[in-house]
Design goal:
The protein is mainly alpha-helical. It has one domain. Helices cover about 70% and strands about 0% of the residues. The protein contains 4 helices and no strands. The chain has helices at about 15-35, 35-40, 50-60, 65-80. The longest helix is centred in the first third of the chain and has 20 residues, at about 15-35. It is globular, with a radius of gyration of 18 Å.
Length: about 80
């Protein structure tokens, strides 16, 4: 017995989940930048795959007000609207 194709047409990733992951990633890397041992271990590379952590930390540090507002808005959305 076969099912209609619509039942298999579910989205695996949602946009709000990707946004939450991105915000948490940026916030976590910005925190890592404040911890000396983690900074030298994780944020020493500025290019390549490991450079993503450094770039996220720079975004979180320079745009800390915008990231904080985005976190509050996303928390409100996840808790009350979704």
């Amino acid at each position: 017995m076969t099912r209609p194709l619509r039942q298999y047409d579910e989205r695996v990733y949602s946009l709000d989940g990707i946004l939450v992951f991105g915000l948490l990633f940026v916030c976590t890397c910005a925190y890592f930048k404040k911890v000396p041992r983690l900074k030298t271990w994780l944020l020493s590379e500025k290019k390549g795959v490991w450079g993503v952590f450094y770039k996220a930390a720079v975004i979180g540090t320079r745009l800390h007000a915008a990231v904080a507002i985005a976190c509050v808005v996303m928390a409100f959305y996840v808790l009350f609207i979704k």
